[in-house]
Amino acid sequence: MPPRFSAAIAPTMPTEGDDSLPGSAGSDTLYGFGGNDTLFGGGGGNDVLHGGAGNDTLIGGPGNDLLDAGLGDDTLYGGGGRDIFDGGDGDDLIIGNIAYTNPGETDDGKRDTHYGGAGSDTIHAGPGNDLVYSGDQGDVVWDEGGSDVFYLGNGHDFFQAFGGAEDDTIFGEGGNDFIRDDGGDNVIRGGDGLDEIYGGTGRDDINGGAGHDKIFGAVGVDSLAGADGDDFIYGGNGDDILIGQGGRDHLYGDDGSDVLTGGPGGDFLVGGQGHDVLKGIGGDDSMDGGSGHDSIFGNAGNDIIRNGEAVFAGVGDDKVFVYDPGDIYGGTDDDTFFLDGGGHSTVQGNAGDDTFLLRVPGTSEVYGNNGDDYFDIREGGVAHLGGGDGDDTFLIRNAGDIDIYGGRGVDKFIAQNGRSWVAGNDGVDQFHFQGGDMTIAGLQPGEEVVRVYRPAESMTAYLDPDGGSVHFDFGDGNMLTLVGYADVDWATQQLFFV
Q1: Which Pfam families is this protein grouped with (predicted)?
Q2: 103 CB neighbour count, 10 Å cutoff
């Protein structure tokens, strides 16, 4: 805090009682001493008013005045000019706007300096470009225009701005502060404590600081950060940047194309409307892109991801829900993918033992890549599945029209219902036919067999007219086809009835 202005000039007729001391047209110095005094700066000059002890009223003039309240619950009015207010001890009222004492007049826009001092003060910063130090006992501060700088101190403060598009800088410092700004491109730092901060209509830069903060961006392209603590951050309209940092944070982008970044804790991120980017960083995060074409990066942690059109799960055992068409990539660990939406999606599990649940018809390409992967096809439209490396399992419950390539490793194919075309490729694979319409290509005679869980006596075998496949019809729409066989007896020997 800069040093306060002081002056030492002989007093003008003060007493220890309740005095009313008017100034002259020049530069006056007035001392109230004891009692509840009223000091008027006069019609001109740069005045110095010292209230002393008691509940005093100090009224400046049109010059550059110093109003020093002293002890007691005092009221200070500035007037025109570049004024300095010092509330001193007590619960003071400091008004920098000349319109309070001279209705119809306007402030000249010069900077006033306000010191609240000790006590719970109420400060009205006028329309000039003011500097305000409110104190540490919990103050109420009103900003009535101008590009101001506010230091709210360590108390539980209330700050409200009215009107104007000027740019303010506000430091909440310590305490649980309530800060609501208006127009302009504002910089707000909540500091320590449990703060509640509302930006305005401009491009705001808000950091809640330490503590569990609530931050609201409103209209404009805002940058909103929580720092330490479990924070709630709401972007509002505009293309906003939301950063949770430490703690378990809740970030909501709302309207606009927003960028949401969590932190090392387990965060909750919701993009809302617009084309958003969500980044989990660390911790077990829950991320929902909302509507629009969203990109989601899980990074480290066991994350839950929804409504992403471009998803990169990252490190950790993640759960990814695919509702809309998109490109989905797993990470290095054991991920679970829920394909619950229609349209065309491409899903790649990458490393790890991944699980893929196809639950709604759609046109999808799903690749397990590395790891021992598990595919559960409960509902399927037109889909292409690839196991990749590893010992993969494909459970075909109710396929639409699906082709499956097992890849390297010992793969297992279990057909229960629906239509499927499967090829084991490398490795000695296992084929289980329980029902449906299953076609197997590339069966290795003598090494691989098809286990059939239907009565042999219900089977009718015949060679396909093209001469390259043998069909086994078990009735009721249950059909098994072996591709690459031209002899029915030889093909039948590849079946093992269970």
Answers
A1: HemolysinCabind
A2: 7
Least confident residue range of 29-38, 170-179, 282-291, 396-405: 396-405
Question: Per the structure block, which two tokens stand in for 226?
Answer: 């929580």
Q: Which long-range contacts (CB under 8 A, 24 or more apart) does 483-487 make?
A: 483/439, 483/440, 483/441, 483/442, 483/443, 484/441, 484/442, 484/443, 487/463
In angstroms, rounded to a whole number, what is the distance separating the alpha carbons of residues 288 and 319? 12
What DSSP string runs through 401-469?
A: EEEEE--SS--EEEE-SEEEEEE--SS--EEEE-SSEEEEES--TTT--EEE-S-GGG-EEEE-TTSSE
- Output b/e per residue, 264-287; b: 16+ Cβ within 10 A: ebbbbbbbbebbbbbbbbbbbbbb
Helix (H, G, I), strand (E, B) or coil at 491: helix
| Count of Cβ atoms closer than 10 Å to residue 327 Cβ | 15
d(CA 149, CA 39): 28
pLDDT digits (tens, 9 = 90+) for 337-393: 999 877 789 999 999 999 999 887 677 899 999 999 999 998 767 789 999 999 999
Give dist(CA 380, CA 244) in Å, integer.
39
Six-digit token string for 412: 């297992």
5 has a pLDDT exceeding 50: no
Please name the residues in contact with 118: beta carbons below 8 A apart, sequence gap of 6 or more: 88, 89, 90, 135, 136, 137
Q: Is the pTM of this model over 0.85?
A: yes
